[in-house]
Amino acid sequence: MNSTFEIAVFEGDGIGPEITAPTVALLNHLAGKAGGYDLRFVTLPAGAGHYARTGESLPAESLRQAAQADAILLSAMGLPDVRYPDGTEISPQIELRIAFDLFAGVRPVRVRPGQPGPLTLPEGREIDFVLVRESTEGLFHSMGKGEVTRDEARETLRITRDVSEKLFRFAFDLAATRKQAGRGPGRVTCVDKANVFRAFAFFRGIFDEIAQDYPDLTADHAYVDATALWMVQKPWEFDVLVTENMFGDILSDLGAGLMGGLGLAPSADIGLRQAVFQPCHGSAPDIAGQGAANPHAMILSAALMLDWLGIRHENAEMRADGRRLREAVEAVVARGDSLTRDLGGTAGTAAAAEAVQRALDGAPA
């Protein structure tokens, strides 16, 4: 008997619904062919558009149903002209991180040989690393609560032992999984600024303690400024990077740039029980309704979701489908098949998604 997994879907704002629909269609297609699992999608209201209509950005009922789902698929959120009274953006995705303690922000960076991008890779090299960003505290701890006076403003950076230990164990477990799959050497790099800030020396110290529990993996350190340099000079040398919230926010966009843009950048925010999967890019209201949005980051985020569910529920077919979906997108981009405008092509959303569908149908299971 097939296992049925409930997926809470937040369609988002701007281009959000346009990239969600083909992604859900691809997931249904995979589940229909696999035979080892079923997916049931429940669409829930949230976002800037919902806030503008109702005064709520994330309704309590949406939060309740999302908490009961097996995974959460969240599309691009926010609109530049819809903000809270204090001027900050509508960000249900951050509210979900806090509500569900989604401490591990997973930002994969992958560039296959032959894939177009800003860097020319040396012969035989490819980029395949994961940035793990702590997603609930750090410099985002005082989000919406910073102190502002006429003469100064203050935000508070907070790093706790409890969250850091969970974060580092997640990063080492991820490196071990990648090594087992032949996708990395089994190395975790703590990215910090421990030479300047006591908070980051504390962060690094906890990392070194947890590393002792993983003697088969390599643990090392790098300062965040040097890491930014090396991500441009030698990104193929990285495996798993783990860092504080704000540093991860910045470096993840640099990683997206290595791939060719945010249109190819998936993400996941993962806790001990729940996980949210969403593209890194915004809602692009300037092109909403034109059918021109790039769906690849959303599709790649769905591939991450299948992999996470497969690991969590020991479902090999879901993991295989997650890999197939990721590789289908990579193949489409590498051969320049139906690229959208942000990638230098002319294809619309539907054509880009259809190219992934064709690649899936031609790919071995």
TrEMBL record:
Cofactor requirements of the protein: Mg(2+); Mn(2+)
One Pfam family cited in the UniProt record for this chain: Iso_dh
Domain Isopropylmalate dehydrogenase-like, chain residue ranges per copy: 6-356
Name of the protein described by the UniProt record: 3-isopropylmalate dehydrogenase
Quaternary structure annotation from Swiss-Prot or TrEMBL: Homodimer.
GO biological process terms, semicolon-separated: L-leucine biosynthetic process
Enzyme Commission number, as recorded: 1.1.1.85
Origin species: Pseudoponticoccus marisrubri
GO MF annotations, alphabetized: 3-isopropylmalate dehydrogenase activity; magnesium ion binding; NAD binding
Top EC class of this enzyme: oxidoreductase
Ranges in a coiled coil: none
Presence of keyword NAD: yes
Keyword Transit peptide: no
Source taxon at top rank: Bacteria
Keywords: Amino-acid biosynthesis, Branched-chain amino acid biosynthesis, Leucine biosynthesis, Magnesium, Manganese, Metal-binding, NAD, Oxidoreductase
Similarity comment: Belongs to the isocitrate and isopropylmalate dehydrogenases family. LeuB type 1 subfamily.
SMART domains found in the cross-reference section: Iso_dh
